[in-house]
Design goal:
The complex is a heterodimer of chains A (about 200) and B (about 90). Chain A has about 200 residues and is mainly α. Chain A is built from 6 helices and no strands. By secondary structure, chain B is an all-alpha fold. Classes of the chains: A mainly alpha (about 200), B mainly alpha (about 90).
């Protein structure tokens, strides 16, 4: 395979280049997936029926913890990619490990939040509002959960094979996915939680 | 050790925290709906742009035109879907 050594490892072959571009195409489609969820949420957010409204069930503390944890994890994986470009395998693995640990903390808080909602009588079946709220949050949470397993498998490959053009490419693509989830969360934080509590 | 923490990423992180704190104004201050939504729209899209450029390295390679074009087109489709639906179902226009 033709290698261009002037570029970072993850871009060093044509195939790598195309993998990254292909992933951007996938992310663009993901924008549309979340856009349809937001559309349904905005349409149904006041259809609370006999169930609670957002103002009654949203709590600022867990939401803030989730936001800062995810923002930090997005920053840390950025450091991981930087370390990868320096060829520092150990630092890359440490940063990726911290990222995934923060992702697990985020998920813990989100699961706790869902349990609280259900105890307060806001289940998936309560109203159009709670159904769309949980579908939107749940789709994001499912992406984070998938990301945890994906990230762990990438770490195992880097640990076993070192930083090769192949593993660097996979790590970079995983970092794109992780940053994208952070961007989606920012929109959830702004237009579901903060708007709901305004 | 120092080379592992580049200034660009640190600045990006501080900016992302600041944007979040500014967005929190709508919770802690008693703003009108229009003022609150304006703040949220600005901080959310600024945050998205920041992640895209600083952390996702969108503009680093030769295909940056395609990447930005792809994302911009999908953002356009997303906004049309959201606003179009709101026009029809909520704002009754």
């Amino acid at each position: 395979m033709k290698m261009d050594h002037s570029l970072p490892l993850e871009y060093s072959s044509k195939q790598n280049d195309l993998n990254i571009f292909g992933f951007w195409v996938f992310l663009a489609a993901e924008i549309m997936l979340f856009a349809t969820l937001f559309t349904s949420y905005f349409t149904l957010e006041h259809r609370t029926g006999t169930g609670p409204s957002g103002l009654e069930i949203f709590e600022i503390t867990p939401v803030l913890v989730e936001t800062f944890v995810l923002l930090t994890s997005s920053f840390v994986i950025g450091l991981g990619i930087h370390a990868m470009r320096l060829g520092n395998k150990k630092a890359t693995l440490i940063f990726f490990g911290i990222t995934l640990a923060l992702g697990a903390v985020f998920l813990g808080f989100e699961i706790e939040e869902f349990i609280t909602y259900v105890h307060e009588g806001a289940t998936l079946q309560t109203s159009a509002f709670t159904a769309m709220l949980m579908t939107t949050l749940g789709t994001h949470g499912a992406h984070v959960t998938f990301g945890l397993f994906w990230g762990i498998s990438i770490m195992i490959q880097v640990k076993k094979n070192g930083l090769t053009p192949k593993t660097a490419n996979k790590s970079f693509i995983f970092s794109l996915y992780w940053h994208f989830l952070d961007v989606v969360w920012i929109f959830i934080f702004s237009f579901i939680y903060l708007k709901g509590m305004m | 050790m120092k080379e592992l923490f580049p200034a660009k990423q640190i600045t990006g992180f501080v900016a992302s925290i600041l944007l979040t704190v500014v967005a929190l104004a709508v919770y802690f201050l008693n703003l009108s709906f229009a003022a609150g939504m304006t703040i949220l729209l600005i901080t959310a899209f600024a945050q998205a742009l920041l992640q895209l450029v600083v952390f996702m390295h969108a503009g680093e390679t030769e295909d940056k035109g395609y990447i930005y074009g792809k994302v911009a087109f999908m953002m356009f489709a997303a906004i049309v879907t959201i606003l179009g639906t709101l026009f029809l179902f909520i704002w009754d226009m």
